[in-house]
Design goal:
heterodimer, A: 466 residues, alpha/beta, Rossmann fold, 6-stranded parallel β-sheet, 16 helices, 20 strands, elongated, B: 222 residues, alpha+beta, Dna Ligase, domain 1, D-amino Acid Aminotransferase, Chain A, domain 1, 2 domains, 6-stranded antiparallel β-sheet, 4-stranded antiparallel β-sheet, 28% strand, globular
């Protein structure tokens, strides 16, 4: 068994710290885990039985093999139960409990003690001070937040690894609301043992995972992280949102270089070298992870905009062509070939624009969207497509979703879709998300997603992968 | 001066003198002006440098030389040089006297190294003068860098056009790329002891490049 498989593909799980009180962390986790169909062992010295499962005083009293243990007991008791896990030969342990390195000197000492306990053993630890993990396809829900207020996202194509518990819960809630799926969610807490680099390596080989999103506040062993990221990013895209800035030592400002490194300029360079796509806020990390999981990389900077609203085409053009960082993404508007323009003229209304942006006008039909997307896909001057699928015009129907899905999945060129609007449009957006179309509710977000595909393409070309 | 010598020095002090950095750079194939280190005004007769020269009081204790008047530019002949040396010997008793050929430039750039707490040695590149002082137009990479990294660094600063012959200012990009690669290599070798390195300014010419000023801070190696 792969070292981290115990966490994400276990056959049997023990929950240490279930309690008669159903609202205690251990009880919540156990309750949700009952849906997984895995062999479960509630651990509590004061219980004989929990939710119909035989309870044991310690994991050592369980007669069968245990792959994964989830620890949710007060921090002072953690060393003792962790020692039991090591003696039982449990491969994966998730320590939910807080009160360690994050709290101060005493907590740090306690965390050191935990490291000592697993040293030299086969037991690996995620946490402490974490939220747990969630693997929807295996119905493993080892999170202690209540579903009523913290709904879980459906099964999807990217893993979200979060150093912050709160940012993780907020992400899950947001993703669930918009129907954005995840292949797994991992809250890594204090990272006393399993590091972000190891998780990158693991998810590089994880079949259901097509992209990796990481929210990090600190990076453990930066050199190793970069080496691993460099290898993994040749295979799968990595998006990182890095919170917190590097603090430098006392001599930092002595020389010029030191004073200029004060910002996160070093991280910027390091991420570029490792092919990591950098997100700057909590929305970008999801937007980029989705597009990178759903779409292929862009091989050049030339974008065609297909729209039924001329105004939106103009706004998109501004974003596409403006300098990167300056309310723009520094891409180019494609010059369509004469052949494409001629064929577009044949299918569109006479007052439509066949230049880029291709303006289908408010009289557009589903068929015209279909034909236009077909033609721009074939144009050799086009590297990527921005399709503004607007549902307000009279001759467009729900079929537009099927058309967009077809070209998004089977077209030659990468495509990002933008739909703007209220209740009806939101319904369409949710449906498109369900079908793994890279859909965005604003032009700016859609254009930035294209930029992420472009950066991905640049990196793969530079590395000789493409 | 060699990498080994730097490791030795790091045991007792936290900085190198400029002549030490320059000697290290020269041995490492990073171009510096022709220079000599001399002790007394009499030695002037035997030096073989092209005038005008620059005179500097070089010591690990003087980090910012211009602030204390430890640099004299445009010294035109041996007579003037003798006088400056006499003056510096009196004023900066513990310093060595560094005499180097004065260089001219088409463009100034800066290359530096810091030892980042997360990623270890990282190399910086930017345009010199006001571009770095005011606009902070610089870019970093973790070492070692590849040729592709170096080229990307040159392309991604805001003032990139100035390196591409803007308004007829011709500069030797290849010489600059070579410096970046050599510095990356050096920084990697010095990883346990290097804290910061500033090559500032580097003069870029139509053909070639030369490191005009160089500072290096050291840290205690573990």
């Amino acid at each position: 068994m792969e070292s981290l498989d115990a966490f994400f593909n276990p056959q049997s799980v023990a929950v240490i710290g279930v309690s008669r009180n159903p609202n205690k962390v251990g009880s919540i986790i156990f309750r949700y885990l009952t849906e997984s169909g895995l062999k479960l062992y509630p651990i509590n010295p004061n219980l004989d039985e929990f939710m119909g499962y035989k309870a044991y005083p310690s994991v050592k009293d369980v007669p069968d093999k245990i792959d994964l243990a989830v620890i949710a007991v007060p921090s002072k008791v953690v060393p003792e139960v962790l020692r039991d896990c090591v003696e039982k030969g449990i491969r994966g342990v998730i320590i939910i409990s807080a009160g360690f390195g994050e709290t101060g000197e005493e907590g740090r000492r306690l965390e050191e003690q935990l490291k000592e306990i697993i040293r030299g053993s086969k037991t690996r630890v995620i946490g402490p001070n974490c939220l747990g993990i969630y693997v929807p396809r295996k119905k493993i829900d080892a999170l202690f937040t209540l579903r009523e207020r913290s709904p879980r996202p459906p099964a999807g194509d990217f893993v979200y690894i979060s150093q912050s518990g709160a940012a993780g819960v907020a992400f899950m809630d947001y993703a669930a609301h918009y129907g954005v799926g995840v292949s797994a969610f991992v809250s890594i807490g204090n990272k006393m043992d399993v590091s972000e680099a190891e998780l990158l390596e693991y998810f590089a080989e994880h079949e259901e995972t097509k992209a990796i999103a990481l929210y990090l506040e600190s990076i453990k062993d930066g050199r190793r992280f970069l080496e691993v990221a460099k290898k993994v990013s040749k295979k799968k895209p990595i998006v990182v949102l890095k919170g917190g800035r590097t603090s430098r030592g006392a001599t930092a400002a002595a020389l010029h270089t030191g004073s200029l490194a004060g910002s996160d300029a070093v991280i910027d360079g390091a991420f570029k070298q490792a092919g990591i796509i950098r997100a700057y806020d909590e929305e970008e990390i999801i937007d980029f992870a989705r597009v990178l999981a759903y779409q292929k990389p862009m091989l050049g900077p030339r974008v065609v905009v297909v729209t039924s609203g001329g105004g939106y085409g103009v706004i998109a053009t501004d974003y596409i062509e403006s300098t990167y960082g300056d309310k723009g993404v520094g891409l180019k508007m494609a010059d369509l070939t004469e052949e494409t323009k001629e064929k577009l003229r044949e299918v569109l209304v006479p007052y439509a624009s066949v230049n880029n942006p291709v303006d289908l006008t408010a009289d557009v039909t589903d068929e015209q969207y279909d034909k236009a997307l077909e033609l721009v896909n074939k144009d050799p001057n086009v590297d990527g497509i921005l399709c503004l699928a607007l549902f307000q015009t009279p001759f467009v129907t729900e079929k537009l979703v099927d058309i967009v899905e077809k070209w998004s999945k089977h077209g030659e060129k990468p495509m990002v879709v933008v739909s703007i609007g209220g209740t009806y449009t939101q319904k369409m957006i949710k449906e498109m998300e369900r079908r793994r179309i890279a859909i965005y509710p604003s032009i700016w977000r859609g254009v930035k997603a294209l930029r992420a595909l472009y950066e991905r393409g640049l990196y793969l070309k530079r590395m000789g992968v493409l | 001066m060699d990498v080994k010598d730097v490791f030795e020095i790091a045991k007792e002090r936290r900085a190198l003198a400029e002549h030490e950095v320059k000697s290290l750079l020269r041995n490492y194939g990073i171009p510096v002006p022709n220079f000599v280190v001399i002790d007394s005004p009499e030695d002037v007769e035997s030096i073989n440098l092209r005038f005008p020269v620059v005179v500097k009081a070089s010591s690990h204790e003087i980090l910012h030389k211009t602030d204390v008047g430890a640099v004299r530019l445009n010294v035109k002949d041996p007579e003037e040089l003798k006088n400056v040396i006499k003056e510096f010997k009196e004023k900066f008793k513990n310093a060595k006297i560094l005499v180097e050929e004065m260089e001219d430039k088409n463009l100034e750039v800066i290359v530096g190294v810091i030892n980042d707490p997360t990623f270890g040695p990282a190399i910086m590149f930017g345009l010199g003068g006001i571009f770095v002082e005011v606009l902070r137009d610089v870019t970093f990479r973790v070492v070692p860098i590849t040729r592709a990294d170096a080229e990307e660094m040159l392309r991604e600063i805001k003032g990139a056009k100035l390196l591409e012959g803007f308004r007829g200012i011709k500069v030797d990009r290849e010489a600059l790329i070579k410096i970046l690669l050599r510095v990356s290599d050096l920084a990697q070798k010095l990883e346990p002891v290097i804290d910061q390195l500033d090559l500032n300014p580097i003069f870029l010419k139509e053909s070639g490049a030369v490191v005009v000023d160089a500072k290096m801070l050291l840290r205690r190696s573990e």
